[in-house]
Design goal:
mainly alpha, 7 helices, globular
Length: 132
C-alpha cells in the first residue's frame, strides 16, 4: 500500500477520535501502523502505534483486539520520561522527578526520538496531545 493510504488511515483515525468513536479510531490507527510497517517506514509505524495506544487508553484498549497486534513502541520508563519532557520539564527536572541521572534522561529521549523519527520536544509534545 502507498503512503497516501497511511495518510488516509491517519486522517480517518483522527476524525473518528474527534467524533468520540475511539474503538474505530484505534482500529484505523493500528491499520496505519501495519501499512507503515509493510512499507518499511518503522518510525511512522512506531508513531502510529503510539497514537493507537494513546487513543485507546486503558479501558478502550481492552475492548479493541486489533491493539494486540500493535506493540507499544515505548517502554514504561521511556513513556514516563517523554510525558514529563513533553509537558515542559527540562532534563534536570525530569531526572529529579524520576530519580534518574540527567544523562539517563538524555539517553532515553535520544532513543525515543530515533525510534519515532522526530527531532525534539515540540514534535514529541504534538504526538502526546490527548486524543479527543
Amino acid at each position: 500500500m502507498s503512503e497516501a493510504d497511511v495518510d488516509g488511515l491517519e486522517e480517518v483515525a483522527g476524525d473518528l477520535a474527534a467524533a468520540g468513536l475511539r474503538s474505530a479510531a484505534v482500529s484505523a490507527m493500528v491499520g496505519a501502523a501495519e501499512v507503515s510497517t509493510g512499507n518499511g517506514d518503522t518510525a511512522r509505524s512506531a508513531r502510529n502505534a503510539l497514537m493507537a495506544h494513546r487513543i485507546a487508553g486503558p479501558v478502550v484498549g481492552e475492548l479493541v483486539p486489533e491493539l494486540e497486534r500493535c506493540q507499544h513502541p515505548l517502554t514504561p520508563r521511556e513513556l514516563d520520561v517523554v510525558e514529563l519532557a513533553a509537558a515542559g520539564g527540562g532534563n534536570r527536572e525530569v531526572a529529579d522527578e524520576l530519580f534518574l541521572s540527567r544523562r539517563t534522561v538524555e539517553n532515553h529521549l535520544a532513543r525515543v526520538y530515533a525510534r519515532l523519527g522526530i527531532h525534539g520536544r515540540a514534535e514529541l509534545a504534538q504526538l502526546l496531545v490527548p486524543p479527543a
